[in-house]
Amino acid sequence: MFIEANVPLQPHNTFGIVAKAHALVRVRSEADAQAVAADPALRVMPKFVLGGGSNLVLTGDVKPLVLKVEVMGIRLVADTPKAWVVEAGAGENWHSVVAWTLAHGHPGLENLALIPGTMGASPVQNIGAYGVELQDRFESLDAVDLATGQTFTLDAAQCAFGYRDSVFKHAPTRPGDLGLAGKALITRVRLRLPKPWKPVLGYADLEKKMVETGMTQPSAQKIFDWVCAIRRAKLPDPQVVGNAGSFFKNPTVTPEQCADIIAREPRLVHYPMVDGNVKLAAGWLIDACGWKGKSVGQASVYEKQALVLVNRGGATGGEVMTLAKAIQTSVYERFGIRLEPEPVVM
Ligand code: EPU
Fold this sequence. Notes:
Elements: E1 3-8, E2 20-27, H1 30-38, H2 40-43, E3 47-50, E4 56-57, E5 65-69, E6 74-79, E7 83-89, H3 94-103, E8 128-129, E9 132-133, E10 138-145, E11 151-155, H4 156-159, E12 184-194, H5 204-213, H6 220-234, E13 242-246, E14 252-253, H7 255-264, E15 270-272, E16 278-280, H8 282-288, E17 295-296, E18 299-301, E19 308-311, H9 317-335, E20 344-345
Parallel strand pairs: 2-5, 3-5, 4-20
Antiparallel strand pairs: 1-2, 6-7, 7-12, 8-9, 10-11, 10-12, 13-19, 14-16, 15-16, 17-18, 18-19
The structure holds uridine-diphosphate-2(N-acetylglucosaminyl) butyric acid.
């Protein structure tokens, strides 16, 4: 194990914010994570687990010990009449895993193409797009307890998945609380791709592609290509313009609250959910408040998707958060809705 000091984090966060890690350890295996837990000085330090940094706003140098996850490897671990189970190291790039499964004839992840970030981060925020969430394809994961060095396996129920949420996003505030943020490091994730493959095509953008092309039964590869095209048209490429994807979660309200807003704002974009509540498009709310293209310093609201904040070059985490707070205030004042940020703020 090698501890690096004062490591620049700009290449390791997709927002491209300049900040340093006071101390950083690269974790390439379970043994590396166990070595951290076994070290008397490191064991007691607060820790921050870093994957691809695609869901992160850095507001200054990072004082907790940064554990940069670089566990690699992709393999098929089971092929049964009901499913393929694919396992990937937490450091693998998410999109590369999606492409690998399709190239090897195991469809099921195509709707989740081109999501930035790593395999290990995918269950942390239960990534989702175009009608599929990670939890719909999740089998189990392996992790290391950073206090004891013990390895353990969690199934979907134990991960407590919610909308862009899991047990890994919560820090325990009291002894006995659930919450594994900073307490555990995910090393490997297994995904279950059900057989026979069934396309998920209910999302409006995909229905539009079917109408445009006249294809009623697209292959998994075709859906993958469509999702890549839709994302490239709507969302900024973090390699070109720094960003962390959707900056806020889509809020849910009761049917009564929704009816109340529609009475004032008939064009409100909303989706009824199975539990009877209604999900609102946060992008529409922000757009309706006139935020597209507005800036604080070098942090701006993306012109093509108001839910995405971007770094115009040299933005600080403080600028991003000042812009985010101004957006929250204006949406609250106009609609009475409190938007909740999606990324982790450090
Ligand atoms: N809209 C506007 N103006 C905007 C942005 C959106 O009017 O500036 C309207 C759109 O016209 C559309 C609706 O809002 O009717 C929803 O927009 P979109 O289809 O782009 O999806 P979203 O709700 O903004 C969510 C996820 C994305 C995911 C897409 C596709 C969240 C917070 N975001 O975005 O996930 O890719 O659906 O499934 O749930 C991410 O989490 O980082 C992310 C990119």
